[in-house]
Amino acid sequence: MKLSTRGKYGLYAMYYLAQHSGEGPQPLQDIATIGVPKLYLEQLLGNLRREGLISSVRGAQGGYQLARDASEITLLDIVDAMEGPIELSECTSDESACDKSCSCPVRWVWQQVSDSINNELKKIRLSDMLNKPCESEEPTCE
Hints:
By secondary structure, this protein is mainly alpha-helical. The protein is built from 6 helices and 2 strands. It has helices spanning 5-19, 28-31, 38-50, 75-83, 105-123, 126-130; strands at 54-57, 63-66.
């Protein structure tokens, strides 16, 4: 399982906004300095806004900002907004996906692993990222 570019870029954008929290709305062009193309970034920010993680302000002094404090936003919130729920197998959320779902021992394994990943992402808050030592001030995407 790999986090897609969409998920990574969404996390980078949220980290940028957390770093600049309290400074007012951040223009799209400033957020794009993380290395995400503006058009793609605009789509990602739209998803984050629809999920209630960020808000947007129109006008000359407009831009994007966190909708709530970074300590109230988990990595699970961000990943879910970008990727949808993390499930290692379709059968963990939809028993009708497989005829063997109810009796399959592998389904139980996928559910345990999916739950573990989701629980770990739920423990980490966006504010925790701000307190970790970082090699450089701004993340960049390649």
